[in-house]
Amino acid sequence: MNVKILNDSLYTTYYTYRDRSKNMSYEGRQGDGVRQATDALRNFVRFNNAISFTRANSARINVMNNLTRQEVAVYLANFITKNANNIRPQSQTESKVIDAILRNRSRGMSDYEIQMEIAYAMMGAKESVLGCNSEDILDVAASLYTEAEVLERDQKQEELARRVEGTVNPRYGIKNLTANPVAVNYCVEEILSGRQISIQNDVKKNPNSKYRPAREYNLNDELMAYTDIGNSRNNQEDSVLIMYHPSSPKYKMLVVADGVGGHEFGDQASNETVKAMVNWFNSLPASYLASGREEELKRAWTEQLRKVNKTIRTKYYSGGSTFVGAIVGEKNTLISSIGDSRAYMLGRDGELYQLTDDDNKSFKTWKAIWESKQKPWNKSQKDFDREKAFEKDLLRFRKDSNVITAALGMETDTLSPQYTLVPNSNYRTLMLFSDGVTDCLSDDSIKAITKYTNPHRLAKEIVNTALSEVSELPISGEQAKKIYNSTIRGGKDNTTAAVYNNKDDGRDR
Predict the structure, then answer these.
(1) Partner of 491 for a Cys bridge, out of 48, 101, 467, 496, CB 3.0 to 4.6 A?
(2) Kind and range of the H or E element at 269?
(3) Over the stretch 124-182, which tens digit does the pLDDT of each residue have?
(4) Which residues, 6 or more positions from 5, have their beta carbon under 8 angstroms from its beta carbon?
(5) How far apart are CA 213 and CA 209, in angstroms?
């Protein structure tokens, strides 16, 4: 969900009504603004009606064109559930709602289940949940969120205005300066708190849960991620990261880490990996992301990955993690990988390209054979490429397909990640996958889904397809049975996708 559009529209509505009556005290005008913004949020979630948002700064249009009531309801439910312990109720209704959340949590209900119950209730699907009237829940969530958002921004903008105005000669009369806030990145928050994996495991352990053990993240419909335990695993060992660099949103990082070694060491190793990437990327000087400094960035990244390798080897002796990451710099994107998690791009020519090589004996053998082959005179290039793709797709059916030759946590101090450099102008969409995706989907399937799916829904669509797809071995015979599995059932492993929608590639949207 585009949180910035929601927050900007709420604030625009707030200050438009706050400044309408000059006869009231400032506190009274603030109250009017908060009430109007709260009503706008409540009406949108309950009735899918954005009419209460002001038309100033296109707030109403932005909400209608860019947000859905479902995603806003889930976002509000996440807000009130996550902050329940820190909210000091100011009314009996607030006390009743907050107490209900805390009471059901103490009874063993996971935060994810509470969030979903609240979200559906706020949209009117149920009259009451958790022992509370659904309209009361919506009123409390909308008012608490609106007040927290607009009043905090009010304070920040007033402080910023005072600092800036203090540098300007008073005779110019500079007043009422404003600034845009940074959207909250719940992916990073959950990584640093360790909740990204634990939330999914809690849902999986609850036999009465109606929800998928999954997490979904969206930053401005530009960076998206979706991760799911899958249909056969009891624990999540994949971790996923999407984030902006603190200096500028034009610089980005995506990471998928797939734990190996089994629960608990696998999930801890993958979480250790993404947590280290968050801290490293936040501290990385923006100058490293400038065009022409890719070799320096590569050296810095390698050094950091070697530190992670040593940490995992020391702390989680029987665990490890595959790694695939992408850093979007000024003009180029640098891809790094260790193991069999993959990076792909949909090029501007509409073709799909795998950007990483699997650290896997079968893959390396396949690649060496086909790189050494010369196209026979009696075969067209199209037939040659088709045969090559067919042989590659067979790799995912091999019984030894998941035996990797490299991962973070290896007994080495000279870890050597693979690197690929891609000009940003070369691709429309960048995708990172754990092998839960690429074991269950052929490249042709990934290409078709990518070409015909709205980019901001792509990560979820890829994962959901990988969870449901059933692939049959396209060859037969006794020898084939010794080497290959006859069927690949969707969701056989943890399944994760991270996507960057390259809005600056020159496409019309």
Answers:
(1) 467
(2) helix 265-283
(3) 887 888 888 889 999 999 998 888 888 777 665 555 444 433 443 443 333 333 333 33
(4) 62, 63, 66, 67
(5) 9
Instruction: Name the nearest CA neighbour of 265 among 212, 325, 311, 206.
Output: 311
pLDDT digits (tens, 9 = 90+) for 320-365: 999 999 999 999 999 999 999 999 999 999 999 999 999 998 999 9
CATH, range 186-358+405-471+490-500: 3.60.40.10
How do 332-338 and 495-501 pair as beta strands? unpaired
Alpha helices in 19-56 (DSSP H): 26-47
CB neighbour list of residue 382: distance below 8 Å, 6 or more residues apart = none
Domain boundaries, the chain: 3-172, 186-358+405-471+490-500
Q: Are the beta carbons of 148 and 132 closer than 8 angstroms? A: no
Model-level pTM? Answer: 0.68
- Tell me which H or E stretch contains 257: strand 248-260
- Alpha-carbon distance of 101 to 95, in angstroms, equals 10
Tokens of 116: 């979903």
| In contact, 472 and 486? CB cutoff 8 Å | yes
* The two three-digit tokens of residue 365, written as one number: 């053998």
